[in-house]
Specification:
Oligomer: heterodimer
Largest sheet of chain A: 7 strands, mixed
Distance between the termini of chain B: 36 Å
Number of strands of chain B: 11
Strand content of chain A: over 45%
Number of helices of chain B: 0
Order of helices and strands of chain A: EEEEEEEEEEE
Largest interface: A-B, 26 and 25 residues
Structural class of chain A: mainly beta
Distance between the termini of chain A: 38 Å
Largest sheet of chain B: 6 strands, mixed
Structural class of chain B: mainly beta
Radius of gyration of chain A: 14 Å
Chain lengths: 115, 111
């Protein structure tokens, strides 16, 4: 069965520090991968999505970047965090077996607090 | 920007009552999905309705879709305290890869 992992679960970082959040998927190959951010009590904002290794689409201009060095690994990074980067970061994957596969599977999330 | 907007933003009902939440979207779609999020957790897929369907059922869930009005509704019948969560609609406008979510309805079911 497929599993998606995110770490760390929680993170407190000072303004101006770097960031690296990691997401890995097990039990599937060549998935679409997604990074979302959720502000407290709000909806999900799509940040990046990837249809393959080194194929990343950015949805929101910001000081964040994403990379996909391996098929089932998706990394969210920042060189210098801002207070506004605080939030709940969710990684998700979706299969590509036919155009009927639309369901997304989410990881447990990372709670980031920038102080 | 958000593709979908849920209404109401928050809903509080007594256990056993039905809960209805609505989603409006902006562009044409080929399907619409509903997800549930327990506090501080990831989202879980509930149900998908295709653009050529008008209504779909899954257990205590009933989803309707009106493509002419670009709207969908999720009905949870005979609610339980365990249904307390936020509910989001999601669409993939303009293609298969990119999925965007609405703003969510926060449902509280009081035992």
């Amino acid at each position: 069965s497929q599993t998606i992992h995110q770490w760390p679960a929680t993170l407190v970082q000072p303004v101006g520090s770097p960031l690296s959040l990691e997401c890995t998927v097990e039990g599937t190959s060549n998935p679409n991968l997604y990074w979302y951010r959720q502000a407290a009590g709000r909806g999900l904002q799509l940040l990046f999505y990837s249809i393959g290794i080194d194929q990343i689409s950015s949805e929101v201009p910001q000081n964040l970047s994403a990379s996909r060095p391996q098929d089932r690994q998706f990394i969210l990074s920042s060189k210098k965090l801002l207070l506004s980067d605080s939030g709940f970061y969710l990684c998700a994957w979706r299969g590509k077996q036919g155009l009927q596969t639309y369901e997304q599977y989410f990881g447990p999330g990372t709670r980031l607090t920038v102080t | 920007s958000q593709q979908g907007e849920e209404d109401p933003q928050a809903l509080s009902i007594q256990e056993g009552e039905n809960a209805t939440m609505n989603c409006s979207y902006k562009t044409s779609i080929n399907n619409l999905q509903w997800y549930r999020q327990n506090s501080g957790r990831g989202l879980v897929h509930l149900i998908l309705i295709r653009s050529n369907e008008r209504e779909k059922h899954s257990g205590r869930l009933r989803v309707t879709l009106d493509t002419s009005k670009k709207s969908s509704s999720l009905l949870i019948t005979a609610s339980r305290a365990a249904d307390t969560a936020s509910y989001f609609c999601a669409t993939a406008p303009g293609g298969y890869q990119k999925v965007t979510f609405g703003t969510g309805t926060k449902l509280q079911v009081i035992p």
